[in-house]
Design brief:
single chain; Arc Repressor Mutant, subunit A; 2 domains; globular; DNA-binding
Length: 212
């Protein structure tokens, strides 16, 4: 795997992005494939809404990718447009690869397997995103804790609120509620799961309530 990543570094252009930097915009022509070597990248869509006669700009987070990971392989492979915006959550190193360089690398069976695996992962991400759109905030929060256990110590509450498409105040109230129940604790703003059995119980109860 490491050898493959090094070979991709040679055929692409490596760039260091600062936190909050935009890698590409929604509807931009997908002319490059991106490989995240270090850091995290948030994929989100933006929408303008009218609320009480006021126009508001709102962002809907689809997923946050952690290194190493391909970014935007589907639109790139189909030569279409990026379906979402990509923004660095923290300082990140990203390789951009042109279509010509990509096609030459298709002769590498290890690369093809890695690319297909990544495509399958993106399908699972999309399925998960579609499912969570019909869930309430409590269920989305519990599901997030369950599926992001390994990286919770690296995530700020602001980032989690973005991922759940809610405001920090609502998330703060939810965190306080589950802290009082003994499910989680916090350390320097980071969430720590205290009782995994309790997490699975709460998640099962919430999902059963939302099942038609």
């Amino acid at each position: 795997m490491q050898q493959l990543l090094e070979s991709l570094t040679q055929i692409g252009h490596k760039t260091t992005y600062n936190a909050n930097a935009i890698v590409f915009f929604e509807n931009e022509k997908a002319e490059r494939l991106f490989l995240l070597l270090r850091g995290k990248v948030r994929l989100y869509r933006s929408k303008t809404e009218i609320y009480n006669k006021e126009t508001r700009y709102k962002e809907y987070t689809i997923h946050t990718l952690c290194a190493p990971n391909f970014i935007a392989e589907m639109p790139f492979f189909m030569e279409s447009h990026y379906p979402a915006n990509a923004q660095c959550v923290e300082q990140s190193e990203i390789i951009s690869i042109t279509l010509q360089a990509f096609k030459k690398h298709l002769q590498n069976s290890e690369f093809c397997l890695l690319f297909i695996t990544s495509l399958c992962q993106k399908i699972r991400i999309l399925e998960s995103y579609i499912t969570t759109q019909n869930q309430n905030l409590q269920t989305r929060f519990l599901h997030f804790l369950n599926t992001h256990q390994n990286i919770l110590p690296t995530l700020t509450q602001k980032h989690i609120a973005q991922h759940l498409n809610t405001n920090p105040e609502s998330l703060s109230r939810l965190i306080k509620s589950y802290k009082n129940k003994g499910l989680i604790s916090t350390n320097k703003g980071k969430i720590i799961i205290q009782d995994y059995a309790l997490l699975y119980t709460y998640l099962s109860i919430q999902e059963s309530h939302e099942t038609p």
